[in-house]
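Per reviewer request, we include the raw input and output of the structure prediction for the construct analysed in the revised manuscript.
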Amino acid sequence: MKTLILTGWFWKDYAVAAAVALRHYKSAEIRGMSTRRLPEFLLETGNKYQEIAILGVGLTGDAELLDKALTKLQKNGVHVRWISSKDFPENIGENIRQKLDHFLCYDDGITEAVSQCFNEPYADIAPLAEQEVPKNLRPVHELLEAAMYFNRNFQDERAYGTAIYHIAHNEPESRWGANEKQMIEHYRRYGHRELVGKSDVMMELHDRINRIAPREKARVFIYGESGTGKETIAMFIHTKSPRKNEPFCAFNCASVTPNLLEDRFFGHEKGAFTGANEQKKGLFEIADGGTLFLDEIGEMPLEAQGVLLRVLEGGRFTRVGGSTEISVDVRLVTATNRDLAELVREGKFREDLYHRLCVVQIHAPSLREHKDDIEQIANGRWLKEHHRRLEAEQIEVLKSYDYPGNVRELLNILERASVLDEADFARILAEHKAMTAGLKPAGQAEESPDELDSAIRLHVKRVYEKYDRNLTRTAEALKAARNTVRKYLEEGV
């Protein structure tokens, strides 16, 4: 009998619950499922199976569509079982309840509910859902983390099911396949990098990455502010390309002096200079067949730009101190937080190199361009650290700030709240603003407050500074009485 287990995402207790169910069914396909997608999925795909077990996935989607799907499945003899630690939602009528073989257990979460339903023990794998995972379960815990990462970022549902299979059967690492080991290796290296968000801005970014990535020869230029995830975008371009199994090398062009760049790019032969005791490969040779990401390309000095241009023209170079030409096949992805076109106009960046690099451009959006994603980003971090979501009031406080440091700054604020065990995010944000006020460049405007009187005081202060703190000229410019201007200035002190 072909069985499907549908379970939730992101919470590890869902995965443990699915493993318990798998112990009962022995063999089943496993998928993660959202409450919103459940009715549509059952209607379109449910007939492929003879039994469907829904574990903890809420019935809060389209009730009419859910009823239609269950009616169709019932007519075709598909047995649908719903196991939950919560009662039916109020909008779910008797018509739906009768079509579900439901088992409700309010004792201790979804895993306990599944355990009681199937009379299957789970004490051996229960710690996987805890904050502190015991040593013997850490390998399979990492496998589960990697699988969830791959599903979130690469829509790889197979990985999630495979991880749950290994959990259910207590299989040691020696029984894992090459795909799982490769997935874990990737997760260890890049698992801290994700492009989180479902806003239109982020969906457009993902779409652009997905269209560009397969064109493995096309050079890509990523531009955007610091903290917007430019290296993460570059990594996703690589991972979604035909080069995904080849090297991905990242290098910050501002990290070494100009005279060392040639050595870093192309390597050197033994004896090429004092201290060159052995042959060393450069970045282009190391990344051969894969992707080379050059960050902060705008910081590269003019004298070093010609070095890079030479290899881009023919894909060939010689190591420092060498005479043999080496040919490489490298996809180059570059990034900067500076206006590269302006640097060209100022004579600080070579125009010919600019055109070589900017074949395809990707904009890394600032966080203020997709504030709706703050909730998902923040909750994702908070769930991982504290196994619970943030309160609605805390999310609203986080959304009230513009984050000049972008996602990196948001995560720093969350980490500070976590370290200090501070639930009052308004206080944390106020402290953060005070701490970072000195980071603003001279002349950069303060963030405008929403409250009217505060906004007026800020505007009066700006005009006062503009006119060299001359009260009379300020009053004339504002077309207001001197006493009125003085009042706002004194209130702002």
